[in-house]
Amino acid sequence: MSYSSSATGILLAAGYGSRFDPSGLHNKLLATLPDGTPVVFQSARRLLSAVSSVLAVVRPGSEKLAEVLNEAGCNVMFSIDAERGMGAALAAAVRATPEAESWLVTLGDMPWIEPGTVEAVARSLDAGASIVAPFYRGQRGHPAGFGAMHLETLSALDGDAGARALFVSETVEKIDVEDANILRDVDVPEDLLER
Question: Which three-class secondary structure state does DSSP give residue 134?
């Protein structure tokens, strides 16, 4: 790791991925990239390229997913709240890390974000940004960073909207990047192919 942020990483890995496999038999986060790496493993390693500690949130019963995340270097939290959506999963992770100086949040199905992008967002957080996000050609992507002053608001999130309301009500430090991968996730099996 070339840069070590004081932020606590949060990896949200509790979604159902129903568009990837409507039957629910195959977890898209355990699907493999062309080089054989599980999607979630690479997503975790990208986040760990800039922070020393990552808490990954998974649904109860996701033992194999937890195993892969542990192998990647994450601490894993099984959260029943996560079944209510991304906002609830994020709130559970923030409540579990109230001592954090800040949080750097990304999604388990976004394995291609460049380490340099993760570092840029982390550096901005460490420099005191309240909320920070990367933008590619005007579109906001991941990872998103939140300062400790948002502990109460983040802890109260619920449902699937995530922290969207914070991005509307607060001033966001925008980091323009040439990394289209901040918008690229795995929704369907075809997304796993090289571009």
Answer: strand
Domain count across the chain: 1
CB atoms within 10 A of CB 163: 23
193 within some domain = no
pLDDT tens sequence across 92-108: 999 999 999 999 999 99
Residue with tokens 């966001």: 172
Give pLDDT tens digits for 134-162.
999 999 999 999 999 999 999 998 887 76
pTM, full prediction:
0.94
Buried (b) or exposed (e) across 49-67, using 16+ Cβ within 10 A? bbbebbbbbbbeebeebbe
Q: How is residue 45 written in tokens?
A: 């390693």
One-letter identity of residue 74:
C
- CATH (domain of 175): 3.90.550.10
What single letter denotes the amino acid at residue 109? D
